[in-house]
Each structure stands twice: as structure tokens, then as C-alpha cells.
């Protein structure tokens, strides 16, 4: 089914086709069935259907977008989406020669995927799927309808696909980081004595929304507490504030943490934040294309181990882009559950990292910096590189 009359040619492919084909070959995959929002967005050149941006459920089922891509065969590519996406296509045509804007749930989407695979002669192929993003009813239908097919977990292949960012992706990540930093600094400057955690989080949501960021979360602490959930707790004179927010700009994640103080920081607080900064700088010093990911991690951990705050401070770094934890995966189960498969691999130009050092001080509270850096041949570029010291709250 082609919504646009006469559309049967390949549009401008929005990804590096040769690289994706090579990754599919390495993974032993003939044809992809991408079903996650982030991978369908990537393969469609940044498109995400706004109607299901915040939720998936509808009626008795859920939205299930599917991009079908055959290795070396873009002329056989298809996008299977919701019926309302026909209007999106009329305004901004999808690049895939085939479009099925016809679905309301998982089973009709899966049926159309099966029919398309049969039509292009791939009913018995090695089909790459996303197990974590393929509902059980859709999986069962595909498995029964294509008994000769070999279903292969394509998760790692798709993560590797997204690991190297394009210039356009880097600009979106930079914009997300800059706008979130602006929003956090404005929120700290707005908050005053008596302002509650719930009110501060709501103010940050407004600041990010007004700047064109889709707010996702804010983790906030006040005073000596390490609890980052919203509550009626109010900011008091002399207390620290940590504000850690994630939001996205056109689907790309900004995730940073900055510190605030109501009043002026004393010498101990200046010293504690300097210890956190020293670990951050140690990590940054090893970020450049060609450095093993594990070498950057071990250098920062070594600096932290020698620090007087080591007993209650943690270092962590992870890749980010369309989701908050993606390739390169640098640490194993720390804290998110995955293997640090990139620790023994060199960092590559245009990878993007989140670098974070977190101190749970027994009396002064939660002290943290989290920064976003893009790997370059010579080192790195930091996004949102402002407000990394003590930012003052409102005085009246």
C-alpha cells in the first residue's frame, strides 16, 4: 500500500547504508524488523509520530511501528505505521518505497510485516528483531507465519549502528544539553528559601518546555538528604541543591547535573565540589578517538581511589544519544544492567559520552556533576559547559 500515488522509488536514505549493511553482514542478518521507537526513528531519518510520543497503548493493543530493511536492498524497504500517519507522509514523504499506514495494534502491524517479507522473498531469511521491543503476540504471529525464518536478536547490531553520530545528530545533542543547562541554571536562580522540591521540579519542567525541550525527569536533592524524589521538603539557607535532569530535543537526550547553594558555599563545600571536578577532569583527559574506553574509565577511577572522598563517591560513564544508555557501553552493571562491551575497544570520533561523578556525603548531602562530551580526533567537545561550580539561589 502506497499512500502517495505513484510512490514506488527509494527516497534519500537518511543513514549510512554501507555501514548498516556491513553491520548486518557481521551479525548474520538478511533483513531487519526494527520495532523500537528509537531505532525506527533513526532508520526513518529522525521521524517520530507525535500522537504516540508519550504513550503506546490504544484500545486493546498498542502502537507498533515497524521498519523493514533488507541488507543491500533499499528498494524493498517498508514502513508500517498507524493509520493516521498517512497525513504525515503526505506532508513529508517517508523514504521507504512501501508504506503501510494501516494499523491500530500489534497484530495488524505484524501481519503486514509478514506479508511484506513474503512479497520480497524473505520468508525464510535470517530476520533481525528487537526482543525487548517486540510484543509477545506479535512475536508469536511472526514465528508461526514464517516457520522457515531464523529470528536473530539484532539489539547489539542496532546499538552499534547508532554509536557514531552524524553532524546533525551532534547538533541535536548539543542543543539538548545547552537548553537543559540553561533551564537548570534559571531554576536554581529562581528558587529561594522555602521553595519545595515539588515546586522546583515543576519550575524546571516549565523552563525546559518553554525552551523547546521535552521534559522527561528531574532528580533533585536538598540539604543533607540523598533522596532525589519529589516531596514537600523546602530549601533552607546554607543548604546545597543538586539538580539532575533529562529531557530530549527532537528525540535526542540531554542529561546533566548541576549544583546550587542557598547563600554562599563554605570552604568545605568548595573543597568537596573540587574533588568531584578533579575526577571529571581526569576522565576528560583520556577522551579522544583511539583511546580504549576502559583506559578512560580506569584513569578516572584511579584518581577517585586516591581521593579523600573515595569512600562515598562513585564514578560512571556511558554512551548516549537517542536513549540515555547506549553504545559505547563502557562499564558492566554499573549501575544499569548491561555488559561493558566497549571497554576493550577504542573510542571513535563522534561517539557521545555522559560522564558523571556522584558524592553521597554523610553530612553535606548529594554533590554531583554530570557532563556530556563528544569524542573528537584531538580530544573532546563538551556540550552545556556552564554552571559547573556553585550556583546561587535567589536571595529574597
UniProtKB/TrEMBL annotation:
This is M24 family metallopeptidase. Residues 19-164 form the Creatinase N-terminal domain. CDD domains: APP_MetAP. Coiled coil: none annotated. Residues 171-377 form the Peptidase M24 domain.
Amino acid at each position: 500500500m502506497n499512500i502517495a500515488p505513484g510512490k514506488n522509488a527509494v527516497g534519500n536514505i537518511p543513514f549510512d547504508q554501507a555501514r548498516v549493511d556491513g553491520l548486518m553482514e557481521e551479525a548474520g542478518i538478511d533483513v531487519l524488523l526494527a520495532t523500537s521507537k528509537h531505532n525506527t526513528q533513526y532508520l526513518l531519518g529522525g521521524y517520530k509520530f507525535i500522537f504516540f510520543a508519550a504513550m503506546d497503548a490504544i484500545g486493546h493493543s498498542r502502537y507498533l511501528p515497524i521498519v523493514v530493511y533488507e541488507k543491500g536492498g533499499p528498494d524493498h524497504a517498508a514502513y508500517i505505521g498507524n493509520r493516521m500517519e498517512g497525513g504525515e507522509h503526505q506532508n513529508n514523504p517517508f523514504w521507504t518505497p512501501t508504506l503501510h499506514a494501516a494499523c491500530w495494534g500489534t497484530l495488524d502491524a505484524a501481519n503486514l510485516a509478514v506479508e511484506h517479507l513474503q512479497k520480497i522473498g524473505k520468508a525464510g531469511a535470517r530476520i533481525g528483531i528487537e526482543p525487548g521491543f517486540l510484543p509477545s503476540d506479535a512475536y508469536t504471529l511472526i514465528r508461526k507465519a514464517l516457520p522457515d525464518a531464523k529470528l536473530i536478536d539484532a539489539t547489539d547490531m542496532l546499538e552499534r549502528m547508532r554509536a557514531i553520530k552524524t553532524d546533525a545528530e551532534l547538533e541535536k545533542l548539543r542543543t539538548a544539553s545547552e537548553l537543559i543547562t540553561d533551564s537548570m541554571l534559571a531554576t536554581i536562580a529562581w528558587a529561594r528559601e522555602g521553595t519545595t522540591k515539588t515546586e522546583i521540579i515543576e519550575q524546571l519542567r516549565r523552563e525546559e518546555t518553554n525552551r523547546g525541550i521535552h521534559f522527561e525527569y528531574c532528580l533533585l536533592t536538598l540539604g543533607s538528604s540523598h533522596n532525589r524524589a519529589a516531596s514537600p521538603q523546602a530549601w533552607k539557607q546554607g543548604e546545597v541543591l543538586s539538580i539532575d535532569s533529562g529531557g530530549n530535543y527532537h528525540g535526542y537526550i540531554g542529561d546533566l547535573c548541576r549544583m546550587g547553594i542557598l547563600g554562599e558555599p563554605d570552604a568545605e563545600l568548595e573543597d568537596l565540589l573540587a574533588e568531584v571536578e578533579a575526577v571529571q577532569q581526569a576522565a576528560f583527559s583520556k577522551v579522544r578517538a583511539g583511546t580504549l574506553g576502559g583506559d578512560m574509565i580506569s584513569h578516572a577511577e584511579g584518581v577517585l581511589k586516591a581521593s579523600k572522598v573515595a569512600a562515598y563517591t562513585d564514578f560512571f560513564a556511558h554512551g548516549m544519544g537517542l536513549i540515555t544508555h547506549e553504545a559505547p557501553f563502557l562499564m558492566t552493571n554499573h549501575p544499569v544492567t548491561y555488559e561493558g562491551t566497549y571497554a576493550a575497544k577504542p573510542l571513535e570520533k563522534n561517539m557521545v559520552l555522559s560522564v558523571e561523578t556522584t558524592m553521597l556525603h554523610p553530612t553535606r548531602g548529594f554533590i554531583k556533576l554530570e557532563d556530556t562530551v563528544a569524542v573528537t580526533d584531538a580530544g573532546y567537545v563538551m556540550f552545556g559547559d556552564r554552571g559547573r561550580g556553585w550556583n546561587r539561589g535567589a536571595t529574597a
